[in-house]
Amino acid sequence: MNALNSLLDGFSTALTPLNLLWAAIGVLLGTAIGVLPGIGPAMAVALLLPVTYGLDPTGAFIMFAGIYYGAMFGGSTTSILLNTPGESAAVVAAMEGNPMAKAGRGAQALAAAAIGHFAGGMIGTILLVALAPTVADLAVDIGAPDYFAIMVLAFIAVTSVLGSSRIRGLASLLIGLTLGLVGLDQMTGQQRLTFGSLQLADGIDVVIVAVGLFAIGEALWVAAHLRRTPGEPIPVGRPWLGRDDVRRTWKSWLRGPVIGFPFGAIPAGGAEIPTFLSYVTEKRLSKHKEEWGKGAIEGVAGPESASSASAAGTLVSMLTLGLPTTAVAAVMLAAFQQYGIQPGPLLFEREPELVWGLIASLFVGMVLLLALNLPLAPLWAKLLRIPRPYLYAGILFFAAVGAYAVGGEVIDLVILLIIGLIGFGMRRYGLPVLPAVIGVILGPNAEQQLRRALQISDGSVTGLVNTPFSVTVYAVVVLILAWPLVKRLVGRGRNVAA
Amino acid sequence: MTTTSQTQERTEPGERRSWLREHSELGVCVLLLALGVLVLTDALTMDVDIAQRGPIGPKTVPIVVGIGLLVIAALLAVDVLRGGRGQAETGEDIDLSEPADWRTVLLLAGVFLATAVLIEPLGFPLAGALLFWGAAFALGSRRIDRDPLIAAGLSLLTYVVFNNLLGVPLPGGPLMGVL
């Protein structure tokens, strides 16, 4: 089936009134969450996981994707007006955007960011339409050893590329894998780490782990260090751009996705690296070098476009390979598991309505977001005045709702608090949260694929590397592992030469 | 922990305490070690009498994870003793220049546990409202006129959305029985 026809079918799914409503709710929530400090898109999707118990998968994923894209739009508003980024992806937006706001050009900065997100998201999603079916076709024959290789890649990438310390990343991953072991072994029914408890025999629900680590852990950590006087946002009017500004920024908007999209698709930490690379590129290409650091509009336009495009790239890996490259993708993968759907190459064959409805809704969401953010930015900025006690009390409240909704068990609330305290400790001692979440979500699955692969090969380890696909993936894994070593050797060589 | 710049007399116990405080991250190593031992004990005491399918049984992966935990605990300990420190997470509402406010954290945990106990006898609307109000109070909000109203409104609305619209059952408790 060709991609364009599928996409048109997707639009007929996305444009039903109910799915339009979910897209609208998603982008509204997403923008609010992006603007609000303290809540990231990953936490928001985690808190909303309980809706998967009552909603059809298409509607739920349309909403989640709206949140993901919306948070990108909203995050830059906080960066520009408050100089404290709402999301890690929006750090770069503060570098030029905030000086612009201080100089009275906040409206232009917001417009450059919003249109940048729109352009980046559109180009990224078009690339997604063009590439995803091809990748899925290429990967359609992959079997147990290949799935296992992809999961190993996810584990290694998430511990090695993110964060400053590999040891701490690995510690976090192992904590997640341990949590994933709790319960009955899927192949033999053997109890593991249940200590005879019936409740634990069911395993610890992924929703509880994600909510505990992302929401409770974050709320408690902020509570321990709550800033008593939150910053004041710079007041701003309606975003608009003059002709000169457009002349300066249109190339940056188009360059952003070239950097953002590929980085989103590989497990390299989501939008942080590409936004920074885009910033550096724009700075080098700029004709107005004297403005940099004081509010150069290209420094807002390029990175913001790159960040939205990277979100589209992330979806390529998640939908076609089941490989989560960011925290949001990891939580969305958990949602797929709740529905018993396995993302991967077969997703495009088995659930065309879901996949193409989701992709089409991204285009719808982008248009909605531009309409919401351009005229209404000053209104969104008002969200920054919400009293912090309400914000964090609300996070705890919705976390409790989510955990209780999983099974109506009080013990789940206690487990949630314990996992929240683990999340608190991890933040205190610099253990990144994402590897633990990926460990819980992919761990059990990886074990099953490993055992299945070895079953097929009758115990021979060569059964893990007998396909070109798995060999390629392991080569990438080795490359990631060896990279710091190579860099050190090259660095030393250079020093000797100099 | 975060800041310990008090001028104390350099006595033996004081020195030891400040060393421990400086190296509190070793506690993480101890926890990882304990977790590793726990996982390994559980795996090794497993009696696999159920017919095993395939060459890898239910023990193998737990043993690998357990050994991994022990190794990582040791590596982290070496890193900490060599002066490596985990970067405490930063954020827009986080002020790391002040020492940690343990009172608030304990209060919040207490409020949360109380909610877990109360949710079945009181029902979700009441217990949820108490959770929100209690948490806002612990975080420093003192608007007696406004806080309970917001808490009650939010809790009731959430109950209706989940219970009636999304079809996720939450306990109504005696209050919903009356209404």
Main traits of this protein?
heterodimer; A: 498 residues; mainly alpha; two-stranded antiparallel ribbon; globular; B: 179 residues; transmembrane helix (chain A); Tripartite tricarboxylate transporter TctA family protein (chain A); membrane (chain A)
Quick take:
The complex is a heterodimer of chains A (498) and B (179). Chain A is mainly alpha-helical. Chain A is 73% helix and 1% strand.
List the helices and strands and how they pair.
The complex is a heterodimer of chains A (498) and B (179).
Chain A lengths: L2 H12 L2 H19 L5 H8 L8 H26 L8 H12 L3 H33 L5 H17 L5 H16 L1 E2 L6 E2 L5 H4 L4 H19 L18 H23 L6 H14 L12 H24 L5 H12 L8 H4 L1 H30 L6 H20 L2 H19 L4 H24 L11 H30 L1
Helix pairs in contact in A: 1-16, 2-4, 2-16, 3-4, 3-10, 3-14, 4-5, 4-6, 4-13, 4-14, 4-16, 5-6, 5-13, 6-11, 6-13, 6-16, 7-8, 7-19, 7-20, 8-19, 10-17, 10-18, 10-19, 11-12, 11-13, 12-13, 14-19, 17-18
Chain B lengths: L11 H11 L3 H19 L15 H22 L20 H21 L1 H15 L8 H19 L7 H6 L1
Helix pairs in contact in B: 2-3, 4-5, 5-6
